[in-house]
C-alpha cells in the first residue's frame, strides 16, 4: 500500500457473520445499539445525529480494513529488539454514492491518510423507476485499487448495484470492492448478494424489512436530509 494510503489503525469492534454470504454485521454491543438508538430517534437533533453517525461510520471503516490483504514484515523497535507484524498490500480508494455517501468520506480519511475519493451520482428515473447514472468521477487507476463503496442506506439495492456496475466497467473486480453501509434491509442485502456474490458488505444492522413505499423499517428516515439539512 502506498505510504499516503496507509490505514492508521484497524482495531475495531469484531464483526460477526450475518445469515448472508459475504455480509458481516458489526458485533451488536451495547455501545453500538446505543449509537443506533440515537440516530434512529426522531428527537435527535442534526448535530447529535452527525456525531453519533460518524462514530458508527468509523467502526464500519475499521472493520472493512480488516478485509485488506497483508504481508508479514519485521521492524526494529527502540529497545533494540525486533517485532514481526504485518503491513497492508496494494492501494485503496473510497467511492461515495452522492449525496448521503459523502457523509462517510471523513470516516475513511480518519483511518487512511490522504486516501483518494471518487464520487458517483445515481438517481431513480421517474419514468422507468430504475436507477440511472448521472455523474461519476473516479481515480484513473481505480482498477488497481481496493475500493470502499460508501452509502449509508441499503433499501432495494438498486442504487448500490448500479454503482458497482459503474466500478466493474472501470475494471474493478467484485473481490476488490467492500461496501460499507449503516442500515440494510433483508431484501436489499439479498438482491445485492445475488447480483454480486463475490462482493463483501460490512453493515451495522440489518433491519426488519421494507414498507410499501420501499422505505427501510424501522429505519431512521432520509439519512442525507438528516445529516446535511438543518
TrEMBL record:
<dbReference type="GO" id="GO:0008655">
    <property type="term" value="P:pyrimidine-containing compound salvage"/>
</dbReference>
<dbReference type="Pfam" id="PF14681">
    <property type="entry name" value="UPRTase"/>
</dbReference>
<keyword id="KW-0342">GTP-binding</keyword>
<dbReference type="InterPro" id="IPR000836">
    <property type="entry name" value="PRTase_dom"/>
</dbReference>
<keyword id="KW-0021">Allosteric enzyme</keyword>
<comment type="similarity">
    <text>Belongs to the UPRTase family.</text>
</comment>
<feature type="domain" description="Phosphoribosyltransferase">
    <location>
        <begin position="28"/>
        <end position="228"/>
    </location>
</feature>
<dbReference type="GO" id="GO:0004845">
    <property type="term" value="F:uracil phosphoribosyltransferase activity"/>
</dbReference>
<protein>
    <recommendedName>
        <fullName>uracil phosphoribosyltransferase</fullName>
        <ecNumber>2.4.2.9</ecNumber>
    </recommendedName>
</protein>
<comment type="pathway">
    <text>Pyrimidine metabolism; UMP biosynthesis via salvage pathway; UMP from uracil: step 1/1.</text>
</comment>
<keyword id="KW-0808">Transferase</keyword>
<keyword id="KW-0547">Nucleotide-binding</keyword>
<dbReference type="GO" id="GO:0005525">
    <property type="term" value="F:GTP binding"/>
</dbReference>
<keyword id="KW-0328">Glycosyltransferase</keyword>
<dbReference type="InterPro" id="IPR029057">
    <property type="entry name" value="PRTase-like"/>
</dbReference>
Amino acid at each position: 500500500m502506498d505510504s499516503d494510503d496507509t490505514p492508521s489503525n484497524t482495531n475495531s469492534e469484531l464483526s460477526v457473520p450475518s445469515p448472508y454470504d459475504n455480509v458481516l454485521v458489526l458485533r451488536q454491543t451495547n455501545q453500538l445499539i446505543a449509537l443506533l438508538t440515537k440516530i434512529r430517534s426522531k428527537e435527535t437533533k442534526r448535530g447529535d445525529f452527525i456525531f453519533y453517525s460518524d462514530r458508527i461510520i468509523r467502526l464500519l471503516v475499521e472493520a472493512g480494513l480488516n478485509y485488506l490483504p497483508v504481508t508479514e514484515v519485521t521492524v526494529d523497535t527502540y529497545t533494540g529488539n525486533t517485532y514481526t507484524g504485518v503491513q497492508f498490500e496494494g492501494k485503496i480508494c473510497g467511492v461515495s454514492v452522492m449525496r448521503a455517501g459523502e457523509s462517510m468520506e471523513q470516516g475513511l480519511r480518519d483511518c487512511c491518510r490522504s486516501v483518494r475519493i471518487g464520487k458517483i451520482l445515481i438517481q431513480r428515473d421517474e419514468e422507468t423507476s430504475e436507477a440511472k447514472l448521472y455523474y461519476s468521477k473516479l481515480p484513473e487507476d481505480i482498477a488497481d485499487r481496493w475500493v470502499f463503496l460508501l452509502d449509508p442506506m441499503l433499501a432495494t439495492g438498486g442504487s448500490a448495484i448500479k454503482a458497482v456496475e459503474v466500478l466493474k466497467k472501470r475494471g474493478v473486480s467484485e473481490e476488490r470492492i467492500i461496501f460499507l453501509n449503516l442500515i440494510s434491509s433483508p431484501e436489499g442485502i439479498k438482491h445485492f448478494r445475488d447480483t454480486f456474490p463475490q462482493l463483501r458488505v460490512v453493515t451495522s444492522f440489518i433491519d426488519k424489512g421494507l414498507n410499501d413505499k420501499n422505505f427501510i423499517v424501522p429505519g431512521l428516515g432520509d439519512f442525507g436530509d438528516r445529516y446535511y439539512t438543518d
